[in-house]
Amino acid sequence: MADSSYADKSLSNRYQPRPQLPSSFPDVLKEYAREVLRAQPTDILAWSADYFQKLALEEDPHAVVNPSSGVSHQPVSAPSSGPDPERDEIAQRLLRAFAQLDASRTGSLSAQVVKQVLMKQLGLSECQALYILTSEYTNLQGDDTLAYERFAKDAALPVQFFIKSHRDFSLEVPDGVTVHGMTRDDVEQEFLQACHEADSEGTGQLSVVAYRSLVKHAPFHLTPRDIRLLSLECSNEYGAVSYEDEIVIMFDRLVLAEAFDSFEANL
Q1: Do 96 and 134 belong to one domain?
Q2: Contact, 90 vs 156, CB < 8 A?
Q3: Same domain, 192 and 146
Q4: What is the average per-residue pLDDT within 51-61?
Q5: Which has the closest alpha carbon to 236: 118, 143, 174, 153?
Q6: Contact in structure between 141 and 104 (CB atoms under 8 Å)
Q7: In a domain, 132, yes or no
Q8: What SS3 class is residue 226?
Q9: What are φ and ψ of residue 236, in 5° steps?
């Protein structure tokens, strides 16, 4: 009987209507994960309670007042992570390295130069550097440059995380893997057809602008990170992209972008 009762309760719970989460919930959860990673509190439960109580106060200043009990809770100060000398030093190292490479003092560098700094000066792997460069906080301009002073501050935290955790991503793609429900052949054939249609003269090349537009409006669904990675890593010479060369490695890059998003979603 006990087993039957337990099974009944389990089935009942399983098929209960799921509560509707607010549309902003994914963003709230992502921001919370980033703040935890930034603060690295010793007492995560107390820190989290403070964090969400402050968030509730920002959304509704009266949210923590209980009229029925007459008890009014005092606003809780924002959880403070305190200074982080190690992270500050990473930001300064990045800034110094970028400034040395900025001969014309524009305050901007190409993404590929920034990638090399992350790898050679900070010791990150290529995948770790690409994760940072394709993240939302990396504000790449249309000419693949970024303002490095702001980037140095924003990138210091993930750089610190990768250095400490040694978390990395694999460039190896096992057989049988699909991405967005598509096999390697599916991706290559769909994109090759789109490129041939865009390449009316049959040169085997597209301008960088045309190629990136094609990526952005791909014949199959691509995530924002897919688009950023494919656009950032496309090899171009004199403003032209040999698209058949890109298509050969496109599937691998899409798998990598999916790994980046999965990692970020589970932070």
Answers
A1: yes
A2: yes
A3: no
A4: 65
A5: 143
A6: no
A7: yes
A8: helix
A9: -135, 140
Same domain flag for 145 and 192: no
Torsion angle in degrees (nearest 10) through CA of 128, 130, 133, 137: -60
Q: How many structural domains compose the chain? A: 2
Q: Choose among 112, 91, 90: nearest CA to 101.
A: 112
CA distances from 189 to 22, 64, 98, 193 (A): 39, 57, 40, 6
Query: Is 5 inside any structural domain?
Result: no
Rounded Cα–Cα distance for residues 261 and 147 (Å): 24
Please give the span between the terminal C-alpha atoms of the chain, in angstroms, as a whole number: 42
Q: What is the 3-state secondary structure (H, E, C) of 37-72?
A: HHHCCCCHHHHHHHHHHHHHHHHCCCCCEECCCCEE
| DSSP-derived pairing of the beta strands 71-72 and 65-66 | antiparallel
Residue 109's SS3 state is strand
Who contacts 161 (Cβ-Cβ below 8 Å, separation ≥6)? 37, 167
Q: Does 188 share its domain with 251?
A: yes
Place of tokens 């980033």: 34
**CB contact at 8 A, 241 and 235:** yes
Phi, psi for residue 81 in degrees, rounded to 5: -85, -15
Answer yes or no: is pLDDT of 188 > 90. Answer: yes
Residue 16 DSSP label? S
Q: What is the CATH number for 251?
A: 1.10.238.10
Read off the pLDDT of residues 145-169 as tens digits, 9 standing for 90 and up: 999 999 999 999 999 999 999 999 9
Picking from 130, 165, 200, the residue at the C-terminal end of a domain is 165
Please name which of 225, 231, 218 lies closest in space to residue 264, comparing C-alpha atoms. 225
pTM of full prediction above 0.70: no
